[in-house]
């Protein structure tokens, strides 16, 4: 693998010479294992960057091996936000993520939370991650949906436990076929929320999405998307999923289960779900790894389907840890500053 490109340091990109020009936000998107972290770090080193996480599972504390979070060294080198900031028993909605992320973006561009101290240049916010719904909530805003109903949610969870996730997904298909196409059968939290909205509003959630959004204002947005060769990406995904098990994913999952039971939401995410199946004796270790690899490949495919609907993405045909791709990304940013 090629070493990341090293380029000279660039001074303040949000210069006073720009007058009233809106500050720039960079969004790095792409499927899992495409190198978003490597690309974000290379850009951050070049442009006084601070990285804003846009991966739902990476927000949770104590979940390390199965999340592919930036390393401690990487987080020490470049300021990261919205990583390891949520209790494992908490639930972070897309709307709550958007509220927190917008607050962070405004503070970064005002220079109020830079790690470099007062009087230093303001920074380039780099939103990086693969949770498409969170990204859409951040940039486009969310509809004014109904309040949560824990009573209804508990009933739906109970139905799913008794009859399987497919049962709830069929309910959603009847209530909102468009939402059912976008939400995977096994993504129980999103399926439950969509049904909750349909029942409370007495309208399909998709209709509500089309009205009343509070879009992000006051920034220029540059979207860079990673689009590596699919077969090479799948091979990388397979290696990374297997490495998670080699690095102790089963042991980490066991500790989390003993501490939190089934109540920690990230335990239903990819990798952890298959490790739990192994711990419960439902599958062999080899079968758990194979299932995790398949699940991650399927997830990457869904991510690309989602991200292709994002507007004005500059697609880069490769991985984020490729020096040539990093050079292309830096050139695109330099055109905007």
Characterization of the model:
It contains 14 helices and six strands. α2 links the parallel β2 and β3. With 337 residues, the protein is of the alpha/beta class. The N terminus is likely disordered. The longest helix is centred in the last third of the chain and has 23 residues. The protein folds into two domains: 245 residues, 3-Layer(aba) Sandwich (Rossmann fold); 60 residues, Orthogonal Bundle (Histone, subunit A), CATH 1.10.20.140. The protein has a six-stranded parallel beta sheet with strand order 3-2-4-1-5-6, with helices on both faces.
The order of strands across the largest sheet is 3-2-4-1-5-6
Helix content: 40-55%
Any guess at the CATH architecture of the largest domain?
3-Layer(aba) Sandwich
Total helical elements:
14
Count of DSSP E strands? Answer: 6
CATH topology value of the largest domain:
Rossmann fold
N-to-C terminal Cα separation, in Å? 30 Å
* Secondary-structure-derived class: alpha/beta
The poorly predicted ranges are: 1-19
Largest sheet: 6 strands, parallel
What gyration radius follows from the Cα positions, in whole Å?
20 Å
Order of helices and strands: EHEHEHEHHHHHHEHHHHEH
């Amino acid at each position: 693998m090629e070493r990341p490109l090293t380029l000279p340091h660039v001074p303040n990109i949000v210069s006073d010479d720009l007058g009233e020009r809106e500050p720039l936000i960079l969004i790095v998107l792409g499927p899992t294992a495409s190198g978003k972290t490597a690309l974000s770090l290379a850009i951050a080193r070049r442009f006084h960057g601070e990285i804003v996480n846009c991966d739902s599972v990476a927000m949770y504390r104590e979940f390390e091996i199965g999340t592919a979070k930036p390393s401690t060294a990487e987080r020490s080198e470049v300021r990261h936000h919205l990583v390891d900031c949520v209790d494992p028993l908490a639930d972070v909605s897309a709307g709550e993520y958007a509220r927190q992320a917008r607050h962070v973006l405004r503070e970064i561009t005002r220079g109020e939370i830079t790690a470099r101290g007062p009087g230093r240049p303001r920074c380039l916010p780099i939103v990086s991650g693969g949770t498409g719904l969170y990204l859409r909530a951040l940039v486009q805003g969310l509809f004014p949906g109904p309040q949560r109903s824990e009573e209804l949610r508990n009933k739906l969870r109970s139905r799913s436990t008794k009859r399987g996730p497919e049962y709830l997904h069929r309910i959603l298909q009847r209530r909102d076929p468009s939402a059912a196409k976008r939400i995977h059968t096994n993504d129980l939290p999103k399926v439950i929320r969509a049904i909750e909205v349909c029942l409370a509003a007495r309208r399909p959630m998709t209709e509500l999405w089309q009205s009343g959004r509070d879009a992000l204002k006051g920034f220029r947005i540059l979207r860079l998307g990673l689009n590596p060769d699919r077969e090479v990406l799948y091979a990388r995904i397979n290696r990374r999923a297997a490495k998670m098990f080699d690095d102790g994913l089963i042991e980490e999952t066991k500790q989390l289960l003993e501490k939190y039971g089934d109540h920690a939401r990230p335990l239903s995410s990819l990798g952890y779900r298959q490790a739990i199946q192994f711990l419960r004796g439902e599958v062999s270790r080899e079968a758990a790894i194979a299932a995790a690899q398949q699940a991650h490949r399927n997830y990457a495919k869904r991510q690309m389907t989602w991200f292709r609907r994002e507007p004005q993405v500059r697609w880069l045909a490769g991985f984020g840890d490729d020096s040539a791709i990093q050079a292309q990304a830096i050139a695109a940013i330099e055109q905007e500053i």
